[in-house]
Specification:
With 311 residues, the chain is an alpha+beta fold. The chain contains eleven helices and 13 strands. The longest helix has 20 residues.
Length: 311
């Protein structure tokens, strides 16, 4: 079947909700041997590390599980260029042929350069192969760019295809919110990523299912609370909204004012359960009590109530 016929056959298919509109065609490679090489960040060591294996390729995860000693690590020790005198010891373990050691070193040095220049959190060649002619080829590659550095990467940002991004997640990001849609029915508005994760765990522990991860961050801007409500309420599966606020940098009274602003400006057709504790907690409770809302102090009580209402 020719490529045009094949494309016409699949172009109207929908896979996981996305329509196929492009077809990637790659030339077949006669592979003699596969390797794995990547540059990433070791958060424990606080350093950039080159990870490589002569038993790698597409089965690298299996190699890491069954033979971790075959995964070699080379820490750059704060340097942005490859120290070839130190790297030579690793290269000798990976490649028996001196010519391959030298040519692979050039490629890995360029991969490291790319990693720093493009603000990557991962730059990976997998599989890194030797073809039948004895030459190196990147049969496949992947890079992950740090979202926080995209303002420095105008060209890369321009390549982004927004049709594959969730519209609510994009809007949340523009509003300074961290949001991920899930499959449950308990909407969550929380401040702090750790507390948000803990809140979702508590919901599941008590028999519920979270509808989203949403972190309003450390800001006390009531408008962010309003934006959070708007985004969550677009999900018709949400049966209750749980607000779990631990006031540190975030002021509880500003969150309370954000709740009242949301109730005035948009319709909230589901029950609202609020837990507030911390900075200006007393003031916040007074504000909410006057509007007919009684917030909880205990996280467990609030989560229990939200799960009950969702059912």
């Amino acid at each position: 079947m020719c490529l045009i016929e094949e494309f016409n056959r699949i172009k109207n298919l929908t896979i996981k909700g996305y329509r196929v509109d492009r077809l990637l065609v790659a030339k077949a490679i006669d592979i003699k041997k596969e390797y794995y090489v990547a540059v990433t960040i070791d958060n424990v060591r606080g350093d950039v590390v080159i990870i490589a294996s002569a038993d790698g390729g597409v089965d690298i995860e299996e190699t890491a599980r069954t033979a971790p000693e075959k995964i070699l690590k080379f820490y750059v020790q704060g340097q942005k260029t490859l120290d070839e005198s130190r790297w030579a010891l690793v290269a000798a373990q990976l490649f028996s042929d001196v010519r391959l050691q030298q040519s692979a070193t050039v490629i890995i040095a360029r991969l490291l350069k790319l990693f720093f220049e493009k603000d990557c959190s991962l730059a990976e060649i997998n599989p890194f192969v030797i073809n039948r002619e004895g030459n190196w080829m990147a049969a496949d590659a992947k890079i992950i760019i740090d979202d926080n550095a995209l303002f420095r990467q105008e060209k890369i940002r321009g390549l982004r295809d927004l049709q594959y991004d969730d519209a609510d997640e994009m809007e949340a990001k523009e509003e300074g919110l961290s949001f991920v849609k899930l499959e449950g029915n308990v909407g969550c508005i929380v401040n702090g990523a750790g507390l948000a994760m803990g809140t979702m765990d508590a919901i599941k522990l008590l028999g519920g299912q979270p509808a989203n991860f949403l972190d309003v961050g450390g800001s006390s801007n009531p408008e962010k609370v309003l934006s959070a409500f708007r985004i969550i309420l677009r999900n018709k599966d949400v049966k209750v909204i749980l607000m779990n606020i631990f006031g540190g940098i975030t002021r509880c009274d500003d969150i309370a004012n954000g709740i009242l602003a949301a109730r005035r400006r948009i319709k909230i057709p589901v029950p609202l359960v609020v837990r507030l504790t911390g900075t200006n907690e007393r003031e916040a409770k007074e504000i909410l009590s006057k509007s007919g809302l009684t917030p909880f102090t205990s996280m467990r009580q609030a989560v229990t109530e939200a799960v009950k209402l969702a059912k």
